[in-house]
Amino acid sequence: MSIKKSYTLEELANLIDAKLVGDASCIISSIGTLAHATTGQVSFLSNPAYTDQLATCKASAIIVDEKNSLNCKSSKLISSDPYLSFAKATRLFDNRPAPEPGVHPSAVVHETAELAPGVAVGANAVIGAHVKIGANSSIGPGCLIESNCQIGEGCRIYGNVTLYHSVKLGSNVIINSGSVIGADGFGFASDGRQSHKIHQLGSVQIGDNVDIGAGTTIDRGAIEDTIIEMGVKIDNQVQIGHNCHVGEHTIICGCVAIAGSVTIGKHCIMGGASGAVGHITIADKVQVSAMSLVSKSISEPGMYSSGTGHMKTSVWKRNIVRFQQLDSIARRLKDLEKHETK
Amino acid sequence: MSIKKSYTLEELANLIDAKLVGDASCIISSIGTLAHATTGQVSFLSNPAYTDQLATCKASAIIVDEKNSLNCKSSKLISSDPYLSFAKATRLFDNRPAPEPGVHPSAVVHETAELAPGVAVGANAVIGAHVKIGANSSIGPGCLIESNCQIGEGCRIYGNVTLYHSVKLGSNVIINSGSVIGADGFGFASDGRQSHKIHQLGSVQIGDNVDIGAGTTIDRGAIEDTIIEMGVKIDNQVQIGHNCHVGEHTIICGCVAIAGSVTIGKHCIMGGASGAVGHITIADKVQVSAMSLVSKSISEPGMYSSGTGHMKTSVWKRNIVRFQQLDSIARRLKDLEKHETK
Amino acid sequence: MSIKKSYTLEELANLIDAKLVGDASCIISSIGTLAHATTGQVSFLSNPAYTDQLATCKASAIIVDEKNSLNCKSSKLISSDPYLSFAKATRLFDNRPAPEPGVHPSAVVHETAELAPGVAVGANAVIGAHVKIGANSSIGPGCLIESNCQIGEGCRIYGNVTLYHSVKLGSNVIINSGSVIGADGFGFASDGRQSHKIHQLGSVQIGDNVDIGAGTTIDRGAIEDTIIEMGVKIDNQVQIGHNCHVGEHTIICGCVAIAGSVTIGKHCIMGGASGAVGHITIADKVQVSAMSLVSKSISEPGMYSSGTGHMKTSVWKRNIVRFQQLDSIARRLKDLEKHETK
Known about the structure:
3 copies of one chain form a homotrimer. By secondary structure, chain A is of the alpha/beta class. Strand 39 (302-305) of chain A pairs antiparallel with strand 40 of chain C, so a sheet runs across the interface.
């Protein structure tokens, strides 16, 4: 089992870039929510909706900004960015079991694969020919890493992930279980009767510090590579089509569907279950709201949405009938306006 | 191969809580649809759309309600709830191969794992340290059960499922292939330049009698646990974010996307490919129609929808242009009405 | 590593059904895009948006139609269907590693399984009882093929795929990693308090030349089989519910969600992330645009859409308020029109 770590508040303050006001020697051994934290725990306030809970929070210390620190009864860890300090704290208290370096005897590693020092390969993993894995990277149980893949240093590939041949990962990449990187892009030429497969000759390149969730699929390119730049964060069950190019530090939430040959800029946010049709370009710093479809290129930063918002089904049924009459409604209104102004 | 079971109509009537009118000794060996059933099969009517097929159905017996039993030529199994009686019959005729108790020699089971009597562990499955598995549960081939997981009695985990560390399942839980339970929730704090991971310190708790489909992902909580209460039924490719709480007996259809920290009540139905944005609460007995997005909390039971309904693309193109003018249309209409009433 | 193949332009022209105008002995060793191809590569023009790039393309040869061939400076491979000729060329230059025939020593193959000559079974794959696999088919590492499955000739099942018991595949079927074929359909009968499972007694039948992407799920039928006809192409993360019937040569793009008992005709295209509610029928040659929901049967061929198109969120927020007033807007407009005509 993993070892739970403890810190004095003084140590903690230093480690999370906060200023301590309170008992420097108090021992903190875990993190709790404002509502449920108890003695020995640190909590945090970042969402203003929970400000009221400061007064009743039973944590030994709370990570807050200067302004809200006045309302804490406990010790305070004052931070200019409490959410970022909280993120640092979660790292300190992470109790996730670390993979053991070495190759599990049940793993099948091709004799030509090159594993740097500190690499862990889990039980029943399969590593193909000419694969290169950088120092301190781990490949979880049941993973399949096909031939010629290159994996950087410090990567964590959880169990049951599949990398098709020749996929390249940078360093410190995380890929969660069930994800599939480098399957064929979806390309067919029709002769009018049937579909002829376009063999996908490119691969996938994934930059440093990219996180990929569970059950996500990123297809290999048709001729050139699909590219995910450094710092991109991708949630679960995202689909990224062949020859997409996702810019640095963009965030792609769960269940997003990106068709092929889409270029997404840097520092974008694709909201949950949103999508983009193929062969379009989305500018830097675009945010797309949940379940919205981007149906043509977006050239200006900003927030974009589609959809109708939810309503009682009884109300909705009447309105969708009218939606189908909307063009007629607009024309008839224009006619009335003409009459009016005569 | 599995053994096909047969029952007399008398036995069958008792086993599915129906009243037999007809030949008690007739042997039934399988189930057929009204359209295609033949001699030796039992069929059923629950969807009124198929009532006409009663007259021509060639089954030896039909499960029907009292009213429709008059139209059957065959023997009748009269039930106050034919669909429920049909469900019971499907269980009787289930020909699915049962996993053999015992640990397959190719499985890798940590020496500290505790397996109760009757547990089956399939080929090439991997069971981590301190895992506890209750009596008569089965772990399919290729599964990864990480350390400290607890699995109740009578669970059936199909092949190639991944449970991350410390996930807890109740009893009689079913999880289908490719599903991933307990991967990290999607949490990052941005410093304006890049994203810092919020390590996910909670886990996932799944109650008794929960069914989970194939390719579904349920993320572990950030601080506290993600919770799926007893009797919840979840279909394929559903995504449930960190710290969600899904109430008892709620049904979540295929491809539903639930963002983080969503509370869903009891006895709800989330229609296929519907979704919910994060940090909202949905009351008990809410039904959300297919591909609808719940974009804020719902406090009243009832049916909710979003979207426009489909139409010919030629018609749709005209109407979506008008949708973007809708606020203007409404204002102009109001202006006209003012003129009118002057 | 795979061997890269080279062809003279004369050979290439014959193999892709094109007419050569240029240097017959020129050696071509790979494919490049119009923008990035260099000497020794062949490129192609099929999307008119790229016509301008012909003039500057550095490829040794370009696949074009008669009309555009006038603008090429390189050798030309003139085809009546350049995209189809390009598809044929991708096959020639495919450098994907081929699975080696034979059973990997770590694979677990049941003694009753029947493997035809040329079958490859990858490392740690598990093959159940009475499975039959046709000549030259390959089962990737980590796959689970449950008992009684039948797989035709020349199929390629990539790693970590799961086939539940009794699934039948035709010949030349491709299934990509993480896909699950034959998990239980989502069927429950409610007694008002809880849900009773309807055991799924059917299976799945998949025709010849069907392609299935990564992370796709196709459920087994409740009583009869789910059927995917020959030549159907299915992308990643598609969900097909129990008892669906998908007609020949239909194309289903990524993230499509099809509920149970849907009949889809032949030569249809379901756009990315589109969906269909249960128990409906979609005619032949229907095209559904991206993220559209088919909410009732479609009896006429043609293109169908739903949704609102995306817009700036600020504009959208005003319009969705009006959407909820749409029925009222339509009625008030009608009232005004009545007044007007008096």
